[in-house]
Every structure is written in C-alpha cells, then in structure tokens.
Amino acid sequence: xxxxxxxxxxxxxxxxxxxxDVLTLLVARTLPESFNEEFQVTGKIISGSNFTDTLKNLGxxxxxxxxxxxxxxxxxxxxxxxxxxxxxxxxRKMLIELVEKLHSSCYLLFNFSIYLCSECSSNMVxxxxxxxxxxxxxxLEQKKxxxxxxxxxxxxxxxxxxxxxxxxKSESQKVTTKIKFCHVVLTNTETxxxxxxxxxTPDFLDEIPSKVKLIEVVNNYHxxxxxxxxxxxxxxxxxxRRLTIRAGTLERILKVDTNSxxxxxxxxI
Length: 269
Prior knowledge:
Layout: E1 2-6, E2 10-15, H1 20-30, E3 39-47, H2 52-57, E4 65-68, E5 75-82, E6 88-90, H3 92-102, E7 106-116, E8 123-127, E9 132-135, E10 141-142, E11 147-153, H4 171-178, E12 182-187, H5 190-200, E13 214-227, H6 237-243, E14 245-256, E15 259-268
Helix pairs in contact: 1-3
C-alpha cells in the first residue's frame, strides 16, 4: 500500500515494502538529467542469490556476505550492508542501472537525500565543520537548503506475525503503520507527478483529477490456487517454494481525496 500527499512544492510518499524498488528508481529517474554529481547512499541489499558480480560490473566495491541458517548452516540469503560510517558514492546513472539490474531479485533498502542549489540545480553537500551546505558547482552556501529528493527505507523486510498486540487497529491505523516502511520526498512538478502516477496507478489514470491533495492505494492479494512443481523437487524445499505458481486475484482500491475506486486483476505468478 502507498499514500501520496500532494503539497505545494513537494510530493510526500509513504509506502509498504512492495514499493521500495519502484520508488528508488522513480527518485533516480526524476532527478534533473543535468544532475551528474555523486551523492552518498546508505542502506542494505538482500537477495536469495549472490549479486557480487553485478556490483563489480557497475564499479561498486561493496562486500556481499552470506547469512546462514543456525541449524543447517545453509545459505539463507546474501546481504550487502552500506552503513552510515562508510556510505557509497553513486551517480544518477549508476543508481538507475543498479536498481534495474537487481530489483527483480533483491530487496533494495536505500537511504539518501539530495539538496539542489537554488542557483544552478547542482548538488549541495554539508560541511561538517561549518554545518553549512555548499554547492559543488557554483560554491553557494546555505544553512538550510530545500530538500528536493530523498528516500528513507527501513533496514529489514517486514516479517509476517500472528501475534495480536494490544487493542485491534482500525483499517486507517493499519494503513498508517504499513506505509512507514519507505518514506520519499519528490519535487512537485507536472513531469514528476505524471511519472509517479504512471508508475503507481497505471490502471486508475482516468479517475485521478489534475488537482488532488491525497491519493492512497491498497493492494489485497487473494490466492485461490497453488500449482506445485514436479515431485522430484520436493527434497529442495527452497526451490520447491520458488517454483510453486500462485494464482488468484489482486484487489486494488484507490482513494482520491473523498472518492474511492476499485479494480480487480487476475494473476498467476
């Protein structure tokens, strides 16, 4: 699920974990094409397969470690940690290539913020000694430049739980809790809005007016059938789960300010 607030100069987005790669790619693509400077990225990449070669091919010197199960010592997943003490420098092009190559097989839990110079739209970097932001191109200094693009993602994918804690939450509270996984800020321009809506709500474009304050999308998956792979794969439980086909319907509910719309899509994945 995802919630988009349309402010005068910004788009403020909160989403669940299923949108983290889409939003990261969207932030990178909507940066000005003239923005070629490097910016600092932190976070984590998690995958069921080793992605070391992909990082090397992109020129990223990052370590991928194996996370093993305690009992069997089998590799559970592969993890690349990019902590705040040692962030990685990326360009717009490099980030786009990274997300495009890894989003289908990895969780991309990235964090970065970009402040653009009001004079030349170049990157502004904070000097830790003066606590001032300085433009890397024209040298303009500002104490509090306007945040133009940012993404902040939680460090681990959510885990399903069956435990009830405290008073049962209302539907509104459930949505608010789930959309805290990923937080994004984008510049509110016509180009960025169109790109965002085309990516998030392609099936509802005709229902969204040109002026809107709040959009919320809820995705409910209803799996009605499981198609299992051949019996000879039963011994490999991980592969067996991956090759099992899920069939059912996706119920998408769109809320645009005070109006609601619904779309049901058949899927087989």
